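To: structure desk
From: M.T.
Subject: fold request, one chain
Message: Could you run this one when you get a chance? Sequence is below, nothing fancy, just the single chain.
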Amino acid sequence: MTPETLNAPDGTPIVLRSCQGLAEMDACVRLQIETWGYADGDVIPRRLFTVAQRIGGQAIGAFDPEGRMIGFAMSLPGVKPGKAPGAPPMPYIHSHMLAVTPKYRNAGLGRRLKLYQRAEALSRGIRLMEWTFDPLEIKNAFLNIHRLGVIIRSYTPNFYGVSSSRLQGGLPTDRLHAEWWMDSGRVQAILSGSSYTPPQSQETIMVPKAIAEWKASAEGVSRAEAVQSDNRRRFQDAFARGLAVTGFRVDNEGNGIYELARLQPDSGVL
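Reply: Done. Structure tokens follow.
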């Protein structure tokens, strides 16, 4: 896919393109370790980045004017069985990892990497991208649901098992499974800023603003785990009743609010 050039908020030109060569794959590995603080057993090695790109996945980098990597996104290819009897399998992309250096965080680069992934996947006729994220991470939820338009219908407790990531705070690695139906009317409207009326919210699930602070302290981690446990039960119950996460907002106090509703038949979601 053709490289894309964009400007950071300070005017610095940034190039998005597929990674090339082992040195750039090594740069992905280094940024991964810097971001999550993984121990060796949790690190995705260079060879998997290389294989992912070879077999139909993605290894996309963001580079500054000196050619230094400041962000990357890595995905793996997958196949889902057809929904109807006799329907052909459906290919999709699982976006496993995305990281941005501290200098460029909170400046929209993560969203632009996702959009580049989307354009590349759609160019190959792939209309679904999935990924997992921590339900307690308010910023990630806002980006994924409100800014990109994912929907969520699945929750897995302790998906990755024990993690050495400092961001996990020692909690179980519970994950929501984001579904990004990249050519749906919902996603196209949200990305373009067009008028979009989401389904009527039937219930909400709240994540306290202080959750990140609680996860990072020995004194607060039990409070974070209590929120995780209660929200786990509520998400699983809602999904079992056929609801889906279709909206996310941040209230005046900074708490994150998941909005759950029933998907419409014409939503473009399978």
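Reply (cont.): Residues 127-270 form one domain. Let me know if you need anything else for the meeting.
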